[in-house]
Design goal:
With 91 residues, this protein is of the alpha+beta class. The protein has three helices and two strands; from the N terminus they run H-H-H-E-E. It starts with 9 loop residues before the first helix and ends in an 8-residue tail after the last strand.
């Protein structure tokens, strides 16, 4: 961490961001209506975590996020973001 001045605008002056989301593990449980046998005695395991991380790797790289930017058109280069990593961590 570093102390900044009041004039610092994080939206305009940073070159990267880190987001951390907390989800309960049951969010990754198979749907019991679609997969009754898999959901029956389901536990969040390291194998489950590895499978989810393998899927999340497909989202890494450059993608257009014009819908999440402030007034950027789809064609504008400023709408493209580079995702370095997605990872499921267990706390």
């Amino acid at each position: 961490m570093k102390r900044v001045t009041g004039a610092f605008n994080p939206r305009l002056k940073v070159d990267g961001r880190w987001y951390d989301y907390a989800l309960p593990t049951y969010c990754f449980r198979p749907n019991p209506k679609l997969f009754p046998d898999e959901a029956k005695d389901w536990k969040f395991t390291n194998e489950t975590r590895e499978q989810i991380n393998a899927i999340l790797k497909g989202f890494c790289g450059s993608h257009n996020f014009h819908n999440f930017t402030k007034q950027e058109a789809y064609e504008e280069a400023q709408a493209v973001r580079y995702i370095k990593a997605y990872t499921v961590r267990i706390y």
